[in-house]
Amino acid sequence: MLEVLKAIKEKHEEARKILEEARSKAARIEEETEQEAMQSYEEAYKITLDQAEQEAEDLEKMLAKKTEAQIIEIQSKAEEEAKTIDEKAKQNIEKAVEMALNMILQ
User: Fold this and answer.
1) What is the dihedral of CA 14, 20, 22, 28, to 10 degrees?
2) First to last CA, the chain
3) Rounded to the nearest 10 degrees, how much is the dihedral formed by the CA atoms of 64, 67, 68, 72?
4) How many whole angstroms separate alpha carbon 49 and alpha carbon 43?
5) pTM
6) Hey, is 106 helix, strand or coil?
7) Along the 106 residues of the chain, how does pLDDT read in single tens digits?
């Protein structure tokens, strides 16, 4: 009977060691998995950040082009208006000179 108890105790110790090893291995696997998950997250975050930065740069370039086009359009309109004003001013000067000459000649 003593041998049976010893055998049971040995098997119990053996089972305990196997269980401890399994728990230890599970803890290592969990830690490795967490590290891999964190690494994957960091890579995904960097990719997303890079994409966002690229989109921001693209948007900034597009807005700069639109702004430049609007500036050119406004400058063109301003030049046209300046020419129109200049032409009207010349016409008004000519009319004023003509009126002055008419008054002198009458």
Assistant:
1) -150
2) 153
3) 180
4) 10
5) 0.54
6) coil
7) 788 888 888 999 999 999 999 999 999 999 999 999 999 999 999 999 999 999 999 999 999 999 999 999 999 999 999 999 999 999 999 998 899 888 888 7
